[in-house]
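Narrative summary of target 7.
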Amino acid sequence: GTYRTWKTQTSPNQALFIYGQAPMELPDGFYRGKVTGLKTNWQGKKFNSKSKTGINIFKKEGKQTELYPFKIYTAKGLQDNIEVLRIDYNLPGNPLRIRFVKDEIVETGKDKFLGKIHLTVIPGLPISVGYFKLKK
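Modeled conformation, tokenized:
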């Protein structure tokens, strides 16, 4: 975990992340996603700004599937001393392994976000595992 966090925190994306800011307005609707340096079937996230919730969109067998709902709120970064929009998967319907994930996003441009993925298996000791981008 320490090595992975070091790799994430020293990545070129880190500079972009710490200069971003928590969104002034909560994201709403679908945002296309891309995981940095990894090919996945994840398509992005769908946000509901009114309920402060959302869900991930995956492509499975040619169809879009919604998986892993989350709640959103503003918080201090787990690894960085900045305000972020936290994406929290610790919800009763999610599998246990997903409930340890906490994403954080910052706005980097109009309808563009850079996200950081953390695992919080041990409370107070988050492991940073990588970045993702979201675009409206």
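The chain has a mean pLDDT of 93.
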